[in-house]
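Incident log, structure service

09:12 report received: a user says their structure output differs between two submissions of the same chain.
09:20 pulled the input from the user's history:
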Amino acid sequence: MTQEHDKVDGGRRSFIGAAAGLTAATVAPGLILHTVEAAPRSEAVTDKVRWGMLIDTAKCADGCSACVDACDKENGLDLQVKPHGASEAMWDRQRAVWIRKVQVQDNLTGRVTNLPMLCQHCERPPCVDVCPTGASFKRADGIVMVDRHTCIGCRYCMMACPYKARSFIHQVVEEKLTATPRGKGCVESCNLCVQRRDNGETSTACADACAAAGHHAILFGDLKDPNGALSKALASAASRQVREDLNLNTGVRYSSL
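09:34 re-ran on a clean worker, output below:
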């Protein structure tokens, strides 16, 4: 799949059509014609599937950023530009991040584990519960998302998220991808590459990148498919949720943790 870094209006309410699996041909200066290669969704999203992940922390390599880099490229986060005059410390706090690598230490053994932290796509997402406008919502297939057209930037969802998995856009966005529209004053987070889901693709950018790097730590699939690789992996190996005490039934699980 190829992607074009299209410059679009930075207005947060402007409608941007979803476009995944695109090729582009320049037909005139400043004009790009997109053609769709992958088949777009023709039926409504249903609860027959629930998308999720199993992340094997034993395979997550220390110092590797393949999943983070791939997520940035897939969703246009690599197009972010530090505001003029902003310090590196401020920019590090404010730039949007959908996946971050964290280290977890066992207080009893001292063992340190590396793992990618992202939106956990909870069955009962706290972010949805506190959103006053319905901008934070969960699709029938389990993907938790933000509707940027109704997000008012109150950031209640960020405070409610126990995983600190959401980012707030502080600055005007000058450049973005058509598949992942973004705008100042909105909250955003991992959406399990929803543009791929809605165009018939069966992977995520982070899983693909992890496999390409030779680690194969991220397994993506349908949690409801008993014959799928994800369900079989979950049945064969012990796994955990982060903050199991909250009873959120997360769509992202971790093994070797």
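09:41 both user submissions now match this output. Likely a transient worker issue. Closing.
09:42 reviewer note: Confidence is low (pLDDT under 50) at residues 1-36. The domain at 22-255 is CATH 3.30.70.20 (Alpha-Beta Plaits).
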